[in-house]
Amino acid sequence: LLPPEWFERLGVGSALVVPLVSNDRVVGTIGLDTASTRTWHQAQLDLAMTIAAQVALAVDNARHYRDARQHAAEVEAMAAIGETLTSTLDAQRVLEGIAESAISLIGAQRAIVFELDQEAACLRARAIRGVMVDLGFTLPVGRGAAGLAALRLEPTWTDDVIEHPLPGYDE
The whole model's pTM is what? Predict the structure, then answer.
């Protein structure tokens, strides 16, 4: 919980930490302490566990509610994409709408939608949001993360581009 020297600094004499368990999985802990040393009696442990179960249920319900709201927002955004796709024959507007929606749905900051130019064997930037790249920028298939994703027909990602650079940039 805390390093022992913190207990002394905070004036903690005794402590009780109870796991928050919902549906047989831990969702957190609740910590209780007193300034004096004491023995925690079984009735207090039982009460703390009952309280922890209620807190765990509340935490789990809040998560479910948050997930449901997120799902509803995703469904709404997907409906908006569908509306954009069917409301215009202007391919550029459709791609720009998809870039905007993808940023919103995924929680990203930037997006580039590339279109495959089969004759030139390259990807051409068609919709750009938040990136200093010119419309029409080309990337050979197989080069860069986007080119590699197109070549392999699978997503390419990393959780830390500095520590673990995206593949496809080797010379």
Answer: 0.54
